[in-house]
What does this fold into?
Amino acid sequence: MDAADVTQDLTHVLFTADEVAGRIAEMAGQIDADYEGREVLLIGVLNGAVMVMSDLSRAMKSHLTMDWMAISSYGSGTKSSGVVRILKDLTTDISGKHVLIVEDIVDTGLTLSYLVQNLRSRGPETIEVAAMFRKPEAMTAPVDVKYVGFDIPNEFVVGYGLDYAGRYRNLRDVGTLAPHVYGG
Ligand code: 5GP
Ligand code: MG
Ligand code: MG
It folds into this structure.
């Protein structure tokens, strides 16, 4: 059995599990206050947003519902192109609802910009975005992310839902991978 400890592959921890949890609690409080008296529909973007969705929704005190979408963004290597394919659509009708898209990370914002446009055409009452992480390049496509967990440097990070080749989503801390992981 491969008993390798995934936490050993992080070379630099940017945010510990405690720091992530603390920020999630603050974001939840802000969202609760902003939506006071209005029921929000959280839309999680699979697979990366699973952890954020799980923690953020449970840190919130308001009534809420959840739905999920899976999208694939065509791109070469680590860059997304903004050409997006819906792999799994919502199961609910969002017209007239207060929609809050829950994302793991916004890099160029191209994926998100497509998603917001697509969902807006379905007639929600309001639509906003919460993202756990945002990179500096997030200006490429001008998407307004109302709730940002942390602004991070332009580095490839893993953990807390974020993967490298499908792995490392289960890391509680968020950080950068050691060079040996990339086949060095
Ligand atoms: P965008 O369209 O904003 O450029 O790309 C967003 C998507 O790219 C994210 O949902 C995520 O899947 C992936 N991504 C962007 N930056 C990172 C990163 O630092 N680490 C990981 N694991 N995925 C990233
Ligand atoms: Mg995502
Ligand atoms: Mg990924």
Observations:
- The first strand starts at residue 10 and ends at 15.
- The chain has a mean pLDDT of 91.
